[in-house]
Task: structure prediction
Amino acid sequence: MKILVVDDDPFILELFPEIFELTDQINVHTAACGPDALRLIEAEDQPFDCLILDVDMPTMNGIELCQRIRTLPGYDKKPILMLTARTDAVSIENAFAAGANDYISKPFNLKDIYNRIRVAERLSKAAKSVVRVDALDIPIENSVGLHSFELSEKLHLAHVERLILSFSLGNYLTQLDRKTLDGCKVFCVSLDEADRAFQRSTSMDFNTLMSNLGESIYHVVDCPHLLMSYEGNGQFICITRETELPDWELLETEIQRSIDETSHGLSISNTVPIQISVGAPIAPNANRTQRVKNTFTRAISRAEMRRSTKVAAA
Result:
């Protein structure tokens, strides 16, 4: 694994190469600031496998550097870990929203470093299964119902605010302390009849529809603490610490109104009704080892129950 560590602290830049000096599988490179890191990335023929960025740096802080790196070719899904003394919820949210996948808290010990690098290796493997579907990558003549990806795949939907990859959202949820966790709400926004929409759309239309739905969620929820991910099957998992959210049924109504407006020009809207269901928010599972699986499963189940209730009442 080829790692780039960026920090303005000379001690950190000396420490990381020493930590992995006897490990043949890990090759550590260092940079003292954001501009130096970008120049080093550009000069390397082979992309780095993992990046560790200090948050508090002069000239360009780690959040800005993370955002810049995410725009570079080959770095849209590379594991990025933030090295920070800030463990407040807002700082952590901002790091993940900028594209970070994990963080290491200062002060740290060797066990912390080894554990997070192992997580980064798992993240790197998981990222390879994420399908990136950009409109520019899809031929104009692509046919209805013929896709290079499955409905269940967790697509990488670019350019949607506060939307991060699924494994990053899970990692964020896992690391929250009990106090922050108690203030969180998790809910799922699901596209009804996603299978029909998938079968009757082109890849470009389906990608656009999911991106529009993500943007509708972001604008309607209108919360600075929102983070969300696309879980496949037309479903978005949303996590927020906002205590003054509108009633979830009102959220559903407003998101529906927004997606009606944005999907109006899509050919799919002429053949399949674009309807969404929002599940009632839940509190995250407290058990750290089962938190992500149990919380995500329950949130999705709530959205599916909501759809069933509407169908039964129709």
The mean pLDDT is 89. Strands lie at 2-6, 27-31, 50-54, 80-84, 102-105, 185-191, 227-230, 235-240, 276-278. The chain has two domains: 2-127, 135-313. The CA atoms of residues 216 and 258 lie 6 Å apart.
